[in-house]
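batch_manifest entry 22 of 60
target: adenylate kinase
source organism: Thalictrum thalictroides
requested by: lab member K.T.
priority: normal
notes from requester: please return tokens only, no post-processing; we will run our own comparison against the previous entry in this batch. if the run fails, retry once and flag.
--- input ---
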Amino acid sequence: MTSSPSSSVDSENIESVGLMAKSLRRMKCSTKPDKRLILILVGPPGSGKGTQSSMIKDEYCLCHLATGDMLRAAKATLGVKEKEVMDKGGFVSDDCVIGIIEEAMKKPSCKKGFILDGFPRSVVQAEKLNEILARQGTKIDEVLNFVIDDAILEERITGRWTHPSSGRIYHTKYAPPKVHGVDDITGEPLIQRDDDTAIVLKSRLEAYHKQTEPVIDYYAKKGVVANIHADKLPKDVSAEVKKVLSL
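--- output ---
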């Protein structure tokens, strides 16, 4: 099947917009201070971590290391047992996740620092992360804890759509794209992830409360946790995040 002239032009326009956006970001980042910043975002699925990560990474020129996205990208190379755990909304083994995270930290785009989204999910992972960062002569600067009631999350999750290549997140009710089904910036199609369902959400919340909430206590004892009220509109949550980080 051959492409029509119009579809070819559309593809060229989308590619040009993407390249321009990358060029502008590089220019903006070249003027930013060289201070290295390492953040952890903690919160249940649907709490808005991804939306706020997009804002933070642009402001501070950080790379966004979203464990869920990286695991989905690596799913083809995982073992059968790990794939089954992911499909049920559970957590894969520590060794698997830590290996992926440690490798991602080495990317040139992480030179000014990074945002960890979805990691660590247990105290054991937090301790392993400390070991990795200690070898690099650095540490966690801030842990943002996105606080929200479970009852609000189902509507958020089931209405969520994502732009795969950038990680931008939209919502059919709270943050719809300008044109239904396509990314505002590139015009590329949005997708709804397989795990954005009520059934998988229930399993993910159970795992979050059992395994991840102790991580908040772990970092609170180190004095680096800031609670973010995530039940507000995205712009209001962004304002609270900026205040905490003094952006």
